[in-house]
UniProtKB/TrEMBL annotation:
Molecular function, one GO term: L-isoleucine-2-oxoglutarate transaminase activity
Highest taxon of source: Bacteria
Similarity-based family: Belongs to the class-IV pyridoxal-phosphate-dependent aminotransferase family.
General function of this protein: Acts on leucine, isoleucine and valine.
The encoding gene: ilvE
Enzyme class: transferase
Gene3D superfamilies: 3.30.470.10, D-amino Acid Aminotransferase, subunit A, domain 2
Pathways per UniProt: Amino-acid biosynthesis; L-leucine biosynthesis; L-leucine from 3-methyl-2-oxobutanoate: step 4/4; Amino-acid biosynthesis; L-valine biosynthesis; L-valine from pyruvate: step 4/4; Amino-acid biosynthesis; L-isoleucine biosynthesis; L-isoleucine from 2-oxobutanoate: step 4/4
Provenance organism: Niastella vici
InterPro entries, alphabetized: Aminotrans_IV (IPR001544), Aminotransferase-like (IPR036038), B_amino_transI (IPR005785), BCAT-like_C (IPR043132), BCAT-like_N (IPR043131), Class-IV_PLP-Dep_Aminotrnsfr (IPR050571)
Documented EC number(s): 2.6.1.42
UniProt-recorded name of the protein: Branched-chain-amino-acid aminotransferase
Record's catalysed reaction(s): L-isoleucine + 2-oxoglutarate = (S)-3-methyl-2-oxopentanoate + L-glutamate; L-leucine + 2-oxoglutarate = 4-methyl-2-oxopentanoate + L-glutamate; L-valine + 2-oxoglutarate = 3-methyl-2-oxobutanoate + L-glutamate
Length: 299
């Protein structure tokens, strides 16, 4: 996939530059040690034809928290970089897009902290792909990183080696995606998405602590409140998940995507008859709803 063309514009440390001409430092501590933090954000064409970034403030606040958790200097103002992000979208004629901000470190081959960080914001086209196909998911042989060894709630680049290994393993075995357990063997999350299951009219999802606290996960919990669907955050095992009526992954890129089976065990409910499907539809309405994102300082 071509992420950029000759005329693609990115935002780099305050300036709009061509992606093809932008320079990075090959001695960056981020490149060598995975010491960087990033976000995955989506924008959508709204019902009235506008472009809206979904939960931009939440994503950029998480970026700040991720950087802080890794002791990376972070001096950007959320509202200013949201505006810069809209400008990146507009300069590249993007409406339905995936936005990738990355905070990375200068040249530094030691493990010492840095006096400054760099921020790049890139975007590329990504359409809605909600519910196109139900997933066949397997339990990964890889567990999520131990939260005692990492700042697991930070969206840190280095953590994604674990995600890549798990996802590659699942695909090599003929599955669509992996599900990872935590260091105690409880269900944690997918390589790039949180997990919910539905049983007897109620939803369950692992609590925060050993997972990335997803913005889509929070949105699903909001939708459950709006629809009066009970939802419980608690630990559960892969055996309990196999007894579910239905299950889904949720994440900014994945949106809400149902599962066909888990470890070859098919879920008994027809996806279109589940509460999970209702949530999927409401999620789609929310992300494409008209009205601009409220900036944190607005009003
Ligand atoms: N867990 C992991 C490991 C992820 O990479 C993601 C994607 N950012 C998620 C969960 C879902 O997070 P969000 O809904 O904020 O995209």
């Amino acid at each position: 996939m071509a992420y950029y063309q000759d005329n693609t514009i990115i935002w780099l440390n305050g300036a709009f530059v061509k992606a093809a001409e932008a320079k990075t430092d090959y001695y960056s501590q981020s490149l060598h040690y995975g010491y960087a933090v990033f976000e995955g954000i989506r924008s959508y064409q709204t019902a009235d034809g506008d472009t809206k970034i979904f939960k931009a403030t939440e994503h950029y606040e998480r970026l700040r928290n991720s950087a802080t958790a890794l002791n990376m200097p972070y001096g950007w103002d959320t509202d200013e970089i949201i505006e810069a992000t809209y400008e990146v979208l507009s300069r590249n004629n993007l409406q339905n897009a995936y936005i990738r901000p990355v905070v990375y470190a200068p040249a530094n081959m030691s493990f010492n902290p840095n006096k400054e960080s760099y921020l790049l914001i890139a975007a590329w086209e990504m359409g809605l792909f909600l519910g196109e196909k139900l997933l066949r998911v397997m339990t990964s042989s890889f567990q999520r990183p131990n939260p005692k060894g990492f700042r697991i709630e930070a969206k840190a680049s280095g953590h994604y080696v674990n995600s890549i290994l798990a996802s590659q393993e699942a695909k090599a075995k003929g599955f669509d995606e992996a599900l990872l357990t935590d260091m105690n063997g409880y269900v944690a999350e997918g390589p790039g998405a949180n997990v919910f299951f539905e049983k007897n009219g109620k939803l369950y999802t692992p609590p925060t602590g050993n997972i990335l606290p997803g913005i889509t996960r929070a949105t699903v919990i909001e939708i459950c409140a709006e629809l009066n669907i009970p939802v419980e955050e608690r630990l559960f095992t892969t055996d309990e998940l196999k007894q579910a009526d239905a299950a889904f992954f949720c994440g900014t890129a994945a949106e809400v995507i149902g599962w066909e089976s888990f470890d070859e065990v098919k879920f008994p409910a027809t996806w279109n008859d589940t509460l999970s499907r209702k949530i999927q539809l409401v999620y789609k309405e929310k992300v494409t709803a008209a009205g601009k994102e409220e900036l944190s300082k607005a009003g």
